[in-house]
Write a structure and sequence with these properties.
heterodimer; A: alpha/beta; Rossmann fold; two-stranded antiparallel sheet; about 60% helix; B: alpha+beta; SH3 type barrels; five-stranded antiparallel sheet
Chain lengths: ~625, ~80
C-alpha cells in the first residue's frame, strides 16, 4: 500500500499554523499569541477532496531554514523533520502559512524555501485577511500567485469554507521552474497596504504605551499576575465550599439507606471521601486555566518578557524564560517542552531544573484545603496567603536558577531577541476548549487513578496488622497504612507531620491531588460515626491518640511549604529526563526539591510555632 | 550610529548588521536586515531591552545585540 500524502505546515512562529492545523484535522492543538507555542511536531489526518487521505504535520515556527549550530531546539525539530522527509523522497507537500499583515517579512521565508528545498510541492496560505481588511488594506491572491508562480490562498480563520479552500488548493505538481522574484516586488504587485493609523501594528503600539509604560507597566504586570493568582482562590473557594456542602448532604442521605455493610462503608468513606473531595477542586483549576489562556492568547506574554528581562538577568535568565515559568503554573510538563524556544542551552537547562518549583494546578487542592482550614480571617486574607504561596514558589525558583547559573549551568547568557506579536482579543471558543479539556482531564484522573488509590488506601486503613492487647487502640491506628506512616514519623516529626500526613505524602508522589483524597479517606474512616462535615473542619478538629489537637497552623504552614517545593510528580521527572536525556539531572531535580521542601517545612513549622506560642 | 544610540521615535534605516556567531544571521532572518526602516519605540529601564519596530513587525532586542546593528537616520522631509 502507498503511504499517505504528507502535508507539512510551516512558517514563521505565531502565524496561525496551529489554528489552521486544528481546523484541518478537527483537533485542539494548543494556540497562544507568543512566538514558539508549538514545540513538537503534531500530526493529524484529513481527507482531500479526491477522497485520498493525507497526514498533516504542524511544525514549530521557524525564521530560517539554515539555523547553523546556534539554532534553538524548536528550530531543529522543524528542520530535521523537513530534511528527513525530503531525503526519503516520500510524497510531501509544503504548506507555507503567511501573515497578510506582514507579507514582505513572510515572503522572505518563501524565497528561502524555494531556494533551499527546490522541487517540492508548495502552497502559500496567507492568513489574517480579516485583520488586513479591517485596517483598510487588501491582498489580491491571484496577483500574488502570478508574481511568485505558486498557488496562493488568502484566508481568514473565521472562513466557514477554510478547510475545503485549503485542501482543494494542495498542488499535485511542484513549481515548474524556479523564477527570480523578490519579496518586495511580489508584495508590491499584490498588496494594498493598510492605512497606517488603523494597522494592527499601530493599534498594538497604542496599547503598549500603557502596558509598557516605565512606571505603569511594571505596576500593571504585578497587578495582573497577582490578580490572576488571587482570583483562583477568590472565585474557586466559594465554589469548592458549595460542592463540599453538597457532598456532606449526599453522605447524610446515603448513609441510612446503605446500612452498615462493608460495601456501604467503602462507597461512603473510600469513594466519596476520596474522589468526592478531589472533585470539589475542579472549579479552581478551570478558573486558573481560563485566566492563563487569556494571558497567552492576548499577546501580553511577549510584553511581560520584555518587562521582566532586565530583572531576570540578575538571576541569569532572559525574559523569554518567563513564559515557561508562567505556564508551569498550570502544569510543569508542557512548560518543560516550552523551554525549547530558549536559544542558550545552559539557560534552558537552568529553567528546566527550576520549573518544578512553580505552583502547578495539582497543588491547588492542598493549598486551598489547608488555607481554608487553618488560616483564619477574611476571604481576602486567605486569598493573600494563597497568592503568597505562588510568590514563594516563584522566588524559590529564581534563587535556585541563580545558583544553577553560577554552578552547574554556568554561562554568560544570550541577549534577548523576541518578536512581539500584535495584541489579539482572546477567542471565547478557545478559552472554552481549554477549560473544558482541563475539567475533563481532571475528572478523568479523579475517576481512575484517584479512585483506585482511594479504594486501595481504604483497604489498607481497614486492615489491622498488629494485635491490640489493651483493646483501646482503634483499628485504623493499627492498620497497614498507619504502620507505614508511623515508620516515617522519626523523619517527619521535626517538621510536624504525623502518620496521616505521611501516608498522604506517599500517595501524593504519584499525583499531588492524592494528598487531599488521602486525607479525605482517612478522616472518612476515622469519623465514620459522626455527622459528615467538610474536610477542612475535620482537619481542624483532628486529635492525636493522646486526645490533643493533631494539627495547628504551624503544621499547615509546614505542609504548605513542603508542597511548594517538592517535585512530587512522576510525569514531571520523566519529562525532565526526556528533555535532558540524563538520569543524574533527573535524580538531582528529585533530590534538591525534596531537600528544599524539608528545609522549608522545618523553617515554617518552627517559625510559626515561635509566633503562635 | 548603532541602534542602541538611535533616539526614541526617530525614523532610520538599517545600514549594516555586524554578524557575530549565530546572531547576525538570526537577526536578518527575523527581519532586522539591511535596508529595513527601523524605529526605537522604547527602552526598558535600568539597561533592559529595546522595543523596536522594523517594517511591519515589532521586536524586543537586548542592548548588546542592538549595539551590533548600524543605522542611518532618515532626514525628515
Amino acid at each position: 500500500m502507498n503511504s499517505p500524502l504528507q502535508v507539512a505546515l510551516l512558517g514563521r512562529p505565531n502565524t496561525g499554523k496551529s489554528s489552521l492545523f486544528n481546523r484541518l484535522t478537527n483537533t485542539h492543538a494548543h494556540i497562544g499569541n507568543f512566538p514558539g507555542v508549538t514545540v513538537d511536531v503534531l500530526t493529524g489526518e484529513a481527507r482531500l477532496p479526491s477522497g485520498e487521505c493525507c497526514q498533516i504535520h504542524d511544525l514549530p515556527g521557524i525564521y530560517r531554514l539554515d539555523p547553523g549550530p546556534g539554532g534553538s531546539a524548536d528550530e531543529r525539530v522543524t528542520i530535521d523533520f523537513l530534511r528527513e522527509r525530503v531525503a526519503t523522497g516520500a510524497p510531501l507537500v509544503l504548506v507555507h502559512v503567511l501573515d497578510a499583515t506582514q507579507l514582505v517579512l513572510h515572503l522572505r521565508l518563501t524565497r528561502e524555501i524555494l531556494d533551499q528545498l527546490p522541487g517540492q510541492r508548495l502552497l502559500l496560505v496567507v492568513t489574517q485577511r480579516d485583520a488586513l481588511e479591517r485596517a483598510g488594506g487588501f491582498l489580491d491572491g491571484e496577483a500574488l500567485a502570478a508574481a511568485v508562480r505558486l498557488p496562493v490562498r488568502v484566508v481568514s480563520h473565521q472562513d466557514p469554507d477554510l478547510i475545503s479552500v485549503v485542501l482543494e488548493a494542495i498542488p499535485k505538481t511542484p513549481p515548474t521552474k524556479p523564477t527570480p522574484w523578490t519579496p518586495e516586488d511580489a508584495a508590491r504587485a499584490a498588496l494594498r497596504p493598510p492605512e497606517h493609523a488603523a494597522s494592527p501594528q499601530e493599534r498594538s503600539e497604542r496599547i503598549d504605551r500603557v502596558l509598557l509604560h516605565p512606571i505603569l507597566g511594571p505596576l500593571l504586570f504585578v497587578l495582573i499576575l497577582g490578580a490572576t493568582f488571587a482570583a483562583v482562590f477568590l472565585i474557586a473557594d466559594p465554589a469548592s465550599s458549595f460542592f463540599n456542602v453538597l457532598l456532606g448532604r449526599l453522605v447524610s442521605i446515603l448513609r441510612p439507606r446503605l446500612g452498615e455493610g462493608l460495601l456501604a462503608a467503602l462507597l461512603l468513606e473510600g469513594v466519596l471521601g476520596g474522589v468526592g473531595t478531589v472533585l470539589a477542586f475542579v472549579p479552581q483549576i478551570v478558573v486558573l486555566m481560563g485566566l492563563l489562556e487569556v494571558l497567552e492568547a492576548s499577546g501580553y506574554l511577549a510584553r511581560a518578557a520584555f518587562l521582566i528581562d532586565r530583572f531576570f538577568r540578575v538571576v541569569g535568565l532572559s525574559g523569554k524564560a518567563f513564559v515557561p515559568l508562567l505556564t508551569a503554573h498550570a502544569c510543569a510538563v508542557p512548560a518543560i517542552s516550552a523551554t525549547r524556544v530558549l536559544r542558550d542551552p545552559k539557560e534552558r537547562l537552568a529553567t528546566i531544573l527550576v520549573l518544578p518549583l512553580m505552583s502547578c494546578s495539582a497543588r491547588l487542592p492542598t493549598y486551598t484545603l489547608l488555607v481554608s482550614a487553618f488560616f483564619g480571617g477574611t476571604t481576602v486574607h486567605k486569598a493573600a496567603v494563597s497568592t503568597g504561596l505562588y510568590l514563594v514558589g516563584i522566588l524559590g525558583g529564581l534563587v535556585a536558577a541563580s545558583v544553577m547559573r553560577r554552578t552547574m549551568a554556568r554561562g554568560k547568557g544570550l541577549p534577548l531577541l523576541l518578536e512581539m506579536p500584535t495584541y489579539k482579543a482572546p477567542s471565547w471558543r478557545q478559552i472554552q476548549v481549554r477549560c473544558g479539556r482541563e475539567a475533563r482531564d481532571f475528572t478523568r484522573r479523579a475517576g481512575t487513578v484517584i479512585l483506585a488509590a482511594s479504594v486501595l488506601l481504604w483497604v489498607l486503613l481497614k486492615l489491622p496488622v498488629s494485635d491490640d492487647p489493651s483493646g483501646q487502640t482503634p483499628v485504623i491506628e493499627r492498620s497497614a497504612a498507619a504502620m507505614v506512616g508511623k515508620a516515617l514519623e522519626p523523619i517527619s516529626k521535626p517538621i510536624g507531620f504525623d502518620w496521616r500526613i505521611n501516608v498522604g505524602l506517599i500517595g501524593a508522589f504519584g499525583a499531588r491531588e492524592l494528598m487531599v483524597s488521602t486525607l479525605g479517606v482517612i478522616f472518612g474512616v476515622e469519623n465514620a460515626e459522626e455527622e459528615p462535615a467538610p474536610l477542612a473542619d475535620k482537619l481542624r478538629e483532628a486529635k492525636t491518640s493522646q486526645g490533643t489537637p493533631a494539627y495547628s497552623t504551624a503544621t499547615a504552614a509546614a505542609l504548605l511549604a513542603f508542597f511548594v517545593f517538592a517535585c512530587q510528580c512522576i510525569s514531571t521527572l520523566s519529562t525532565v529526563y526526556r528533555e535532558t536525556r540524563s538520569w543524574p539531572l533527573t535524580g538531582f531535580v528529585f533530590l534538591y526539591t525534596y531537600a528544599l521542601a524539608y528545609l522549608a517545612a522545618f523553617l515554617a513549622y518552627h517559625g510559626v510555632r515561635l509566633f503562635t506560642a | 550610529m548603532s541602534l542602541l544610540e538611535l533616539p526614541l521615535d526617530v525614523d532610520a534605516v538599517i545600514e549594516q548588521v555586524h554578524a557575530q556567531d549565530d546572531e547576525g544571521p538570526l537577526l536578518r532572518a527575523m527581519g532586522l536586515l539591511e535596508g529595513q526602516p527601523v524605529r526605537v519605540l522604547r527602552r526598558a529601564p535600568l539597561g533592559g531591552p529595546l522595543q523596536v519596530r522594523v517594517g511591519d513587525a515589532c521586536f524586543a532586542v537586548g542592548r548588546s545585540l542592538a549595539s551590533l546593528v548600524q543605522v542611518q537616520v532618515v532626514e525628515a522631509r
